[in-house]
Amino acid sequence: MQPTHDNCPCMDDCPLNRALGLIGGKWKMQILCSLYNNGPTRYNQLKKTLDGVSNTVLANALRELEEDRLVTRREYLEVPVRVEYAITEPCKRLIPILDQLGDWSMTL
Amino acid sequence: MQPTHDNCPCMDDCPLNRALGLIGGKWKMQILCSLYNNGPTRYNQLKKTLDGVSNTVLANALRELEEDRLVTRREYLEVPVRVEYAITEPCKRLIPILDQLGDWSMTL
DNA sequence: CGGCATCCCGAAGGATACTG
DNA sequence: CAGTATCCTTCGGGATGCCG
Predict the structure, then answer these.
(1) Which 3-state string (H, E, C) describes chain A?
(2) pTM of the predicted protein model
(3) What is the set of domains in chain A, with CATH numbers?
(4) By the CB < 8 Å criterion, does B8 face chain A?
């Protein structure tokens, strides 16, 4: 008896859909891309670079990315306080895959 | 003078964000995955396989996927009418990349 | 400086009924 | 059979102000 393949592995929560959820937010790609290009960046600098993002959205995106281990948040106890965000090693491994995705979309 | 890298290439509409938009809809991955696993599939069969999707959502997703050349829609003028959806060649080239994305998310 | 609290809006997603 | 039409809900995203 052959496998029916009636159901698709994506039906319930699959790794692929999880991945898409992690990077699917509206500003998340820009954030990761900017941190990748510019290295560790302070909150307000990041906000300036991503022109047009609001505080609520940027803060939420950063917190989610941190929870998902895609960026790190380092707080330096100076006066005034300094906070720097940077991408993690796992996130760096993601970049080449994203490059392929970009290349693919250009062949459409 | 070195490049400033102040701006990220994702700031305006980049290929990567376009790609994420194409496959980012809620049921799109399941649709593509099912069509990939099961081959050309009729509308109602697809709807049964993707348990829980409504007509509006499924029809919209399929139309968008067709516009974006990720699936084909073939209409057979029988009685009653028969419509089969299938993934395109460009879409098949996408699959290995998505596999990598899935693998990556499992290493997190 | 680096956010959080609040309020708001439009788009995405969904349920249901109906039709060519 | 393969959808559209209609209406409704939810939620991601956004603007603004304030605070530790």
Answers:
(1) CCCCCCCCCCCCCCHHHHHHHHHCCCCHHHHHHHHHHHCCEEHHHHHHHCCCCCHHHHHHHHHHHHHCCCEEEEEECCCCCEEEEEECHHHHHHHHHHHHHHHHHHCC
(2) 0.88
(3) 15-105 (1.10.10.10)
(4) yes
